Structures are given as structure tokens and as C-alpha cells.
Amino acid sequence: MKLLQINTSVNSGSTGRIAEEIGKLLIANGHQSIIAFGRGNQPSESETIRIGNDLDIKWHGLKSRLFDRHGFGSGNATKLFVKQVEQLKPDIIHFHNLHGYYLNVEVLFKYLRSVNIPIVWTFHDCWPFTGHCSFFDYVNCFRWKTGCFSCPNKHGYPESLLIDNSRNNYNRKKQLFSSVKQLQIITPSNWLSNHVTESFLKGYPVQTIHNGIDLTVFKPMADDAIRVKYNLGNKKIILGVASTWDRRKGLDDFIRVSSPIGDELQIVLVGLNTDQLKDLPQGIMGIARTENTNELAALYSAASVFVNPTYVDNFPTTNLEALACGTPVITYNTGGSPESIDANTGIVVVKGDINGLHEAILEITAKGEAHYQPLCRERAVSLFNKDDRYMDYLHLYKQLLAEKNRKPENG
């Protein structure tokens, strides 16, 4: 089969790595894999197609910031891409993130409703069924169930500085996304799956496939070099990892919890930008974002606990990476994040409870790494092995193609 995946990035960030791993599995099983992307190009084993260019992304971003029209820019770039798709004639099209200032959903879906191609869409957030935001729970807004208007999260990603166009966006997205016949929705968490069934997309089948990770890369390792590199000594490490740090990811909460942390503990945050690195308080060590997964695995392995005080999330891959390296996870009760752990592999804390966060850190560090490591690794191996989870996608593709072949062309 010929699979075309579409995502903001390729082999970069969590969704880009997911697309890459699915592509690698398809290739290993004798199929053809193409990944179309907007930015963040990294070396890939799949064929790649870039949609638009840097200038186009900037114009799309400006349109979103001024007029709240995210997903409705990049018209010419998407028309050119559609022509490429027509020539490729893929058997399956698999969406990941269509948002990201690179794609026009109106152009894309007008094309898709005219062709007989099964579509798989993995929702990595809530943007597909809201009129604006990627995570409605940040402001506890449920207008998306009946129709968005007067968005209380206008300044959340994708930010609009001036106009609130959430009502129009909602109506257009509802019309477009409901116009295709062969759509299978996938969610990495049961939390998101439950919400999709309450959205305007409830008429489509929804299935949960958890994210998977490379257990040959993310595994327990004894690497004193990582402690030497960052001058960590013998301190117990409290680790946080994010591709972009802000209040939504819990940066402020890490700063607040750092003050009561004793000298024997060291908070290390990975993924900070230059300005954030300059402004960190004394109790936190910052590391810039890295695509070096081996170094990430070494940091996870060196940590006593991975802390994820996220305020908005679907099913964070960082939790899985930590577990695979034998490191327990503390997370807020946010989205599907608690689904990655159980009572033996971490602690769920009420969102925003700094005292609870502090107590959970002390509880886990007191029990020690030897208590958690085998349990965390076992959970990752049994539930989040990429070979198993992405094989679920291959089985799904084959199922959809078989169903298509059983139906008449106009069925």
C-alpha cells in the first residue's frame, strides 16, 4: 500500500516522531511511506513533501494572529500540494496535526470529498472540533459541544490578538470535516475519545491507539557522563521535559515548587528557550531543546522522578519515555496524562496543587529508584512499545482498504 501522512513536522517533536515511526514500520513491511509536512524537516526514512515555505507560514501566522483564521491560510501552497496528491494516488491518507500555520483545510477537504480514499485522522489535541483552541480544558469551556462563540481562550494557541472568529471557524470546520465519507478518528487517550463522541464528529468511528515509543532508545541506562556534563554530582534529579515551556506546561509551577526543594534534590528542565534559560531561579538547571534522543534517555534514566505539571495535554509522550527509562512519573490530573501511569509507577496530583506536587516528589524520591525502575519499565514494555502500537495502525490501514474494496465505487 502507499501511505501518505500529513503533519506539521517530520521526525521532530512528538507528533513528527510518531509519523516517522509509522512510516518506518510501513517500509519494513514492504509498503511505501510518504510524509507531507510544513516545517521542522529532519532526516527521514520516508519520502517527504514540504507544503509551502517559510514565507507562507509567516503569512498564515499573521492571518491567524490578526483575524483568527488558523487553518484557512496557505491556500496556494495547499492547492499545489493537492496536485501532488493527485499524482501520488495514495491508498490511505493519515492526518496528524493539520494546524501549525502550513495548510488550508478548506482546500484540502474540498479535494478529499471528491475522491475515494480512506482517511485516518489521529487527534493529538482538540483543535479539530473547536472553533479556536487546541485545548478547551485550559479555560474549562465546553461551547464546542453546541457551537463556539465569544472564545474565552482567544489568546491560547493558535493565538488571535484582535478578532474572535470562533463561531465562523466552528461552523466551517464542522461543515468541512463532516463532508468526507471514509474517516476513521484515532485518539491516543480515552479522555479525548470520550470528548470526540460529544462533538460534531460523533458520527464517525473513534478508536483509541496509545502512542508508542522506541524501547531500544528509551531504556534504563547507567551513564555517569550525563551527570558530569551538567555538573549534577550525586544529587537526586527532578526532571521536566517539554518541546515548548510556558505556563500551560507548568513552568510557573516548577518555579514555585523549587523553593522548598532541599539541597539534595536538583530540578532539571529540558527544552527551554534562550530567554527562559537566563531567567531561571537558582534552584533550577535549564537545558535547551534537543533532538538527541540518546541524551534525553540518559537524562530520564538519571532522574529519580519525572514531573509533568501540564495544564493541557492529550497523552504526553514524555511520560512514556520516562517510564521506559525506569523513571516514575508525577502528573497533574490533566487530559489523558494520568492514563499513562498506575499506582505502581507514579502519582497523579490535582492540577495546580503545589503542596501536593511537593509531597509527591518527596514520596517518590524517598522510595528510591530501585523500587520503581522494574515496574515502570514493565509498564512501558507491555503497553507503549512502538512496534505494537504502530502495528495497530498497519492493521487498521489494511482493514480500511479491505472495507473499501468490498464496497462499490459510489457506495
Outline the secondary-structure elements.
Layout: E1 2-7, H1 13-28, E2 32-37, E3 47-50, H2 54-67, H3 75-88, E4 92-95, H4 105-112, E5 119-122, H5 166-177, E6 183-187, H6 190-196, E7 206-208, H7 224-229, E8 236-241, H8 251-258, E9 265-272, H9 274-279, E10 284-288, H10 293-302, E11 303-308, H11 317-324, E12 329-332, E13 346-349, H12 354-367, H13 369-383, H14 386-406
Parallel strand pairs: 1-2, 1-4, 2-3, 4-5, 5-6, 6-7, 8-9, 8-11, 9-10, 11-12, 12-13
Please provide a written account of the structure.
By secondary structure, the protein is of the alpha/beta class. Helices cover 39% and strands 16% of the residues. It has helices at 13-28, 54-67, 75-88, 105-112, 166-177, 190-196, 224-229, 251-258, 274-279, 293-302, 317-324, 354-367, 369-383, 386-406; strands at residues 2-7, 32-37, 47-50, 92-95, 119-122, 183-187, 206-208, 236-241, 265-272, 284-288, 303-308, 329-332, 346-349. The strands form two sheets. A seven-stranded parallel β-sheet has the order 3-2-1-4-5-6-7. Strands 10-9-8-11-12-13 form a six-stranded parallel β-sheet, with helices on both faces. The chain starts with a strand and ends in a 5-residue tail after the last helix.
